[in-house]
Amino acid sequence: MNIPMAAKIRYSSSPASVLTSHDTLLGLANANLSEFQDVSSPQQISIQSPTPQPILGPLYLARYGTIVAVFLVPVLIFLVSAIATRFFRLRSVPGPFWAAYSRLWLVRTLASGESAAAFVDVNKTYGPLARIGPNHLLTDDPQFVMRILGVRSKYARGSWFDILKLDPLLPNLVSGRNKKEHDHLRLQMSAGYSGKDIKDLEKMMDERVTDLISRLDETWVSSPNETRTCDIARYIGFLNLDVITELSFGKPLGFVAADEDLYGYSAHFEKKWAQVQHFAVLQELNKLMIKFLEIPWLNSLVTGLPRKTDEQGIGKILGIAKETVDERFETGAQKSDILGSFLRHGLNRSQAETEIAVTLISGADSTATATRAILLAILSNPASYAKLQKEIDEAIAKNAISSPVRDSEAKQLPYLQACITEGLRNFPPITLLRERVVPLEGDFVNGRHVPAGTNIGINAWGLQLNPVFGPDPEVFRPERWLIDDQERLREMRQVQELVFGYGSTKCLGKAISAINMNKMFVELFRRFDIAVTNPLKPWTSVCYGIFFQKDFNVRITRRESPNQGFQKTVRH
Ligand code: HEM
């Protein structure tokens, strides 16, 4: 029978009654279609009910009862007990109200793009140990963080780290949760990262920094009568991508030379990471995805993962990593770069492919963010800017630095070192929670019992606002590092170093990032004057645990003094 879409449905046994949706659905489900009949108006259909049976009401009720009993009651019991267990589990730890009941607070905070600042507020409001989820705590207590991350700690990386897998089925150094396997891998990779195994590390960095300075000099220098607005965030990003790809793949991918976000890599990374960060909280989704990937006939259901065959984005980089490793295996070429070191220390083919791609992800953005944040802090503090430029000029006048500057020479510039140390403290570039899990026996933190299995997140920004830094930790003030009190300096350094982690998972790329920043700042300030074009909004900086920064628009002019004249000579 053809039923017009706009037909009104009436229940004939009670023509006047208006049906609830439940009644309608159950009525339709139980009605015999032959009992439908056309009524006088074609727009109206009357549903002839079976002869009313008094028994039907109780039967329907019984059905409702069954549905409620079978489905809803267990679901309700599960929800109430899950919420109650979760709430009571960590009830002694204060935190935002809704965070005690659901992870949505955490998801919303991560999605805000301002999670680092939000976490600072949480520990400021609720104390050094605060609750940010039913089973998630957050700490900004340096002593506790060192205890968690210490070499002999029984705390382990939590399932938070699964989001750092590039290949969901293969753990890598930054994601690995098996301590023994991680320590072994770390041992195999340390020499490559430390730079010991890379013969021409500094020469390579000099070439990359010189490329960038040339690009700025040729394209972005303003004259007294005009302004060429340069988004320096973009170039700092390109420089770091070139440095890390040259270190890992043996040659730079050429972001600076192309003056373009090659393969849409950075844009793709930002878009993907904004989504992926949520899997660190909604871990069930991550586990489900991994299960799907493990079952061959289900893995095509998982879409959107980067693939080595992609022509764009992270997938393209994975493809280049694979080609690079294939070439080394096929030609037997022994190169003095990070990949060469990894292979000499026993990494197999698939490990090598993953790890060199991981180097790019862990090394490029972190150093780029640090460089941008330090640069902005210097540009915003005229007194610091003047002191730094004077220190560099005097070193040039004394012939104490080469062109480009050597790392060892830059380390002799105390104000530069103070600016870098203070800038990293003032704006730690990695604010991912990096949750560790409380061991089986549980723990006592500041007199509170914390049960086994609790996730403890690290508040990277909060740590660097510790009173050890004095009464003005929010302020960029390099002078705080230029004091004579050695004991105080030691205490401050210990906390500042947490920017790079601690213990058995401490950053392996710290030395590489230091060389890079030392060269970049000296080479920039010796030859250019730089000013932000919009002091009211100097940049856009979005935080998803790592930072995505752009529109750091500056006006660059050449300095007049002959000391700073641009030279391409590399003197070693
Ligand atoms: C200013 C720049 C950098 C900062 C602030 C930084 C920060 C960090 C932090 C906080 C961790 C600890 C992660 C954890 O808790 O498990 C880490 C680990 C790591 N970083 Fe960095 N990083 C920087 C630059 C680099 C560079 C340039 C590279 C590579 C060339 C690199 C490679 C690594 C690796 C491989 C690990 C893992 C170590 C392990 O799990 O044993 N980082 N980094």
TrEMBL record:
Question: Which terms in the Gene Ontology molecular function aspect does this entry carry?
Answer: heme binding; iron ion binding; monooxygenase activity; oxidoreductase activity, acting on paired donors, with incorporation or reduction of molecular oxygen
Q: What is the name of the protein in this document?
A: Cytochrome P450
TM region(s), chain numbering: 61-84
Cofactor names? heme
Which residues hold heme? Answer: 507
Alphabetized InterPro entries for the sequence: Cyt_P450 (IPR001128), Cyt_P450_CS (IPR017972), Cyt_P450_E_grp-I (IPR002401), Cyt_P450_sf (IPR036396), Cytochrome_P450_monoxygenase (IPR050121)
Q: Which UniProt keywords apply?
A: Heme, Iron, Membrane, Metal-binding, Monooxygenase, Oxidoreductase, Transmembrane, Transmembrane helix
* Pfam families reported in the protein's UniProt record: p450
Could you tell me which species this protein originates from?
Heterodermia speciosa
Q: Superkingdom, according to UniProt?
A: Eukaryota
Q: Which family does it belong to?
A: Belongs to the cytochrome P450 family.
